[in-house]
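Thread: histidine kinase, structure

OP (GT): Posting the sequence first so everyone is looking at the same thing. Length is 662 residues per the record. Can we get the structure tokens written out before standup tomorrow? I want them in the notebook alongside the other entries.
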Amino acid sequence: MKNIELPIPHNEKERLAALKRYNILDSLPDNAFNDATKLVSYICGVPIAHISFIDESRQWFKSEIGIGVSEVPREISFCRYTIMDTKMVEIPDTLLNERFKEDPNVTGGFKVRFYAGIPLTTPDGYNIGTLCAVDHVSKELNEDQRNALSIIAKHVINQLELSTKNIELDAQKKIAERAVLAKDSFLANMSHEIRTPLNAIIGFTDLLAQTKLDTTQRDYIDSVQIAGENLLLIINDILDLSKIESGNLTIEAQPFNLKKTLKHVYNLLKIKASSAVELNLFVDTELPEMVIGDQGRLNQILVNLTGNALKFTEEGEVTVSVKKVNETDDDYSLRFSVKDTGIGIQEEKLKTIFERFTQAEESTTRRFGGTGLGLSIVKQLVELQNSEIHVKSKEGRGSEFSFTLTYKKVDYVETPIEKLMEEHPGKLKILLCEDNALNQKLAKSVIENFGFELDIAENGEEGIDLLSKNNYDLVLMDLQMPIKDGYQTTEYIRKEMKLNIPIIAMTAHSLVGEQERCYDVGMDAYVPKPFKQAMLLETIKTVLTKDTNQPPKRKIDLLFLDEMSCGNPNFKQDMIDLFIQKIPNELAQLEEAFNTNDMENVKKLTHNMRSSLDIFMLKDLSNFLSIIEQEAIMGKFTSESLDKINILHCGIIEVVKILKEL
């Protein structure tokens, strides 16, 4: 064969750049390409077929049949000519072709007699490779076969485009995940950094309010207290919104006194109503005393809606009403309404008022204050309870917000509980582990005001040292400290020092699962900063009167299991036995898979375990599994994943223990 100069496309530089953009060279086998190659071989009836890509020096085979090598030098390939063309190159008989009749792969090698190659052309017009059919005998393709090869060639390019888009999307997804993680981390840190000085502001203001003040000073103090409370509400709104968006806010199902909750909301907001506004509470006479649901979230919804109504009503009335609209053997449906005679909302603004950072008018924020987050949070809290919130309003005449929630019935009637330790607990010696100087000073003033003695440790190690030298009745434990944080210190006190002294967590942080983790490491109670003096004192009383060896006991709802069993006690017992045998083993497998970053096994185990936990209505633990499963699907565990695994471990151990007692 004559020496023929290697043909080079006029746009070779751009063509190579287009090829590299797909990142296809030297990649692993792919079923989609292999199937396309088999299809070419079948349609054309040839023993040799391939999908190849040509770079500066070689022809690399992404998929091939009948060749047996991964690449050949570019200068000996037939396809170096095909990429110069815009259409299919077909050679019925290579022995009759002047260019190829003396080629080593015609006279020997692969013994090529028939060749058909179609360039693989990118959407922007660059020939980066070829799709080929080759035979040892001469032949000619019919029109249907040629059309089929063209279609398959387009399919190959589409597959490359799709793969590239997926890679880009995956990269964008990782950027988004990092952004979400950064946002969550920022919000958690912001919570701590703002709450820490706010704790001091509110705390010292409370102390100042207890001193003798003249009328003007009292007025100033009241204003500072209101400003502090408003700032705290804004911080809590932002943190709640973050929890809802990340799926980490769950709705609890615990018995609570509905009428007391409504009365509490009324009493709380009554003092905020101006003298020109009358706040009314209308309760259906058929309203149940006790229900099962999330008391805290109902309280939050009603306080937000009623607070808004009072804020936007300068004269007239605000009416909160609750009516029973339906009752079954198992639950009640209750309609809640908050109606006012305030400024009202323009009709065109009604669709947007539930959007975050949105208020009906720009002037509303300047005139009445607020972040515009409240209604967005209310809407999502209502939707988390499988309901919808509705609004009716006329500008200048007032508004009404309403929603219907379904609560399960309670099997027992609440009995009055004698208030614990009505009397002062007497002289106490308390150890405070806290590194912030302002918080140390505040706590010292508050604790001494209670009549207790206080020692202060700057960090966990100092706290352990003081505990080993002195006798204390109680430890107040900040969670974020240098050297040894609150968790590490508590674990050391419980496991190494073997002390049962009551420990109360005090933190300005607001991470999901933090309260559960406090209990898991051995703390007895949890007080968020900024703390109210009355709340702290009540918590101190509570932990001193309960058995500190007994952490808060979980309640297991077997209602769904009862329904499944249809009255068959043997079936119910079998399900409980199966849970006890199966779940701890699967938990151990999950922990091992998590520690080794075995994402596939984590996905499989979390999915399987969730169905079992859902049967026993363990919503909080099932929610942790859902979050871990989603992280495994995304291929990356977040900084809180280990916390969730630890909480899950403690929760399942507790559940198994309770089920064994049954």
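GT: Both are above now. Quick notes for whoever picks this up: The chain has a mean pLDDT of 82. Residues 143-209 form the longest helix (67 residues).
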